[in-house]
Amino acid sequence: MTAYELPHGAAAKAPEAPEAFEAPETPEAYDAVVLAGGGARRLGGADKPGVRVGGRALLDRVLGACAGTAVIVVVAAPRPTARPVRWAREEPPGAGPVAALAAGLAATTAAHVVVLSADLPFLDAPTVGRLLATLRASGAEGVLLTDADGRDQPLVAAYRAAALRRELAALAAGPGTLVGLPLRRLTGGLDLTRIPDPVASLDCDTWDDIAAARARIREHEHVLDEWISAVKEELGIDLDVDTGVLLDLARDAAHGVARPAAPLTTFLVGYAAGRAEGGPEAVAEAARKAAALALRWADETAEGDPGTAPGTPPGAAPGAAGAGPGAG
Q: Helices 261-275 and 280-303 meet at what angle, rounded to 10?
């Protein structure tokens, strides 16, 4: 087994020898192991972790859900990823999920480990947090999601690392090897708690699954959040901002100045915040200034029309700003 890091955005080339590492350990720290080396036979051998859903590779979507990890280990051949990870490989490659999990677990040190497959388009950080919180609050050795049919999903789960190592050692001491063993041989000896979640547990095994996931992302109520996440990942931006503030600014610029002013103004706000080397607060302050300017612009335009009250958007009917019960 080898474990090593691939720098963000670097070509997928392994170093000559694994590097020693020490993971930070706190009471709340956890590690993650992502299994991404399957053959994807039902996808015709396609590179499943690299298939894009909602503009983001499936593997990157899963990595994005692991917000508070001390170490993320991906068991697969190295590739560029949206965030730095540690790479591991089962011996021999393609030896199955138990062997892959053993290889990934060997590169972790935290007491709790989240184990995930690389094809979960709807997994998010709150779901990972819920798995961990349930594990920490219970005496269980693992907490996993169940799908819409009530089936266990051991690759969307949080485990006590000691329990996984105990079961792996027992399997390794028995007849045969870990090669080709199904995960139920490993998890069958664990005390498990189950959480039903038919959405976060959805995986993508076929092209029909991929098509359904893509359609769901474009149709569900969080499509704007999905788009913003994809853009931030594509641009290498790790910044949470109040999208409502920016949308309000775009509306004010479009109505008070001209429609093309909306995208140009929001771009300039982002540029100003970047020059100030600020975070969400800098974006909010720049947006506030630009919104105030847009309103002043609208007022000045209205003042040029004697029949239009200040604050009325250009093109509105005279007196529209004061219309209503008691007006006039």
A: 140
Whether 206 shows a pLDDT value over 60: the answer reads: yes
Listing DSSP states for 266-294 in one string gives HHHHHHHHHHTT--HHHHHHHHHHHHHHH
Query: Which amino acid is residue 318, in one-letter code?
Result: P
Q: Take residue 257 and report the two structure tokens written for it.
A: 């100045």
**What average pLDDT does this structure show over 270-280?**
76
Is residue 155 within 8 A of residue 98, CB to CB? The reply is no
Nearest alpha-carbon partner for 103 in 68, 81, 74: 74
Q: What is the pLDDT of residues 156-196, one digit of tens each?
A: 999 999 999 999 999 988 777 888 888 999 999 899 999 99
Nearest to 181 by CA among 88, 90, 113: 90
Which tokens belong to 25? Answer: 């350990």
pLDDT cut 70: percent of the chain above it: 74
**CA-closest candidate to residue 65, choices 145, 19, 115, 128:** 128
Nearest CA among 229, 235, 242 for reference residue 269: 242
Is the separation of the CB atoms in 153 and 161 below 8 Å? no
Predicted confidence at residue 285, as pLDDT, reads 82
Nearest to 46 by CA among 55, 58, 64, 33: 58
Identity at 21, one-letter amino acid code: F
Range in 213-217, 285-289, 320-324 the model is least confident about: 320-324
In 139-204, alpha helices (H)? 161-173, 184-187
